Recover the amino acids of this structure.
């Protein structure tokens, strides 16, 4: 009886060992063996090494061109009598160059930008003027700070600072004068980096050059105070170094 029980125990143990060995062999057969180094090299040559896409940043120096159109107003006021022409319309195209520098902190962009260019803004009136009073602007420059928040390659921003330009006043058949004036500006825009080094922008800017006084150059009698302000809409193309 004892022999029978022993034989049965031995048979059970043998079956268990056999099942374990079989399962291990099956598991070994299902494992994927590492590819030889030569095969991995061939695969890398065929498909290329992994490419790391650099993080885009607005930081750095840039320069570019801009062009747009200005819609403004001017007023001539007799400094003695106080009689004025009232405000009359000015308009014309602008084209110039831009340069600046940006620093990025997280999504915030802080920068400084300057531009200078030719201006063809002018207008005239006959109201309370001896003949025709004309105001024109031949060059315009700005030096501004910029603050924006970048959504990756989209950069909405606000901008403002100092403005410089000439104010030319002319009375038909009487005389003219030109004076460099300084004022201020304020505006905003949207810039988009369509390539890592190239960006395009659309910008609005209000520019006020203050007042220039025209004496004997415009009139043989009383001097005139001439004001100049304009609203500019322009586009630009910049290259970041």
């Amino acid at each position: 009886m004892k022999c029978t029980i022993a034989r049965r125990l031995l048979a059970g143990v043998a079956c268990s060992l056999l099942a374990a060995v079989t399962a291990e062999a099956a598991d070994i057969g299902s494992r994927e063996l590492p590819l030889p180094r030569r095969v991995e090299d061939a695969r890398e040559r065929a498909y290329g090494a992994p490419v790391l896409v650099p993080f885009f940043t607005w930081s750095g120096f840039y320069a570019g061109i801009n062009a747009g159109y200005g819609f403004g107003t001017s007023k001539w006021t007799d400094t003695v009598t106080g009689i004025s022409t009232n405000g009359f319309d000015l308009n014309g195209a602008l084209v110039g160059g831009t340069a600046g520098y940006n620093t990025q902190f997280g999504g915030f962009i802080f920068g400084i930008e300057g531009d200078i260019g030719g201006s063809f803004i002018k207008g005239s009136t006959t109201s309370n003027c001896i003949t025709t009073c004309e105001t024109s602007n031949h060059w315009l420059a700005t030096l501004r700070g910029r603050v924006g928040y970048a959504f990756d390659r989209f950069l909405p921003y606000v901008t403002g600072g100092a403005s410089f330009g000439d104010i030319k006043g002319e009375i038909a058949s009487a005389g003219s004068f030109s004076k460099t004036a300084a004022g201020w500006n304020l505006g905003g825009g949207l810039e988009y980096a369509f390539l890592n080094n190239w960006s395009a922008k659309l910008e609005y800017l209000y520019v006020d050059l203050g007042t220039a006084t025209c004496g004997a150059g415009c009139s043989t009698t009383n001097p005139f105070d001439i004001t100049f302000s304009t609203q500019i809409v322009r586009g630009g193309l910049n290259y970041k170094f």
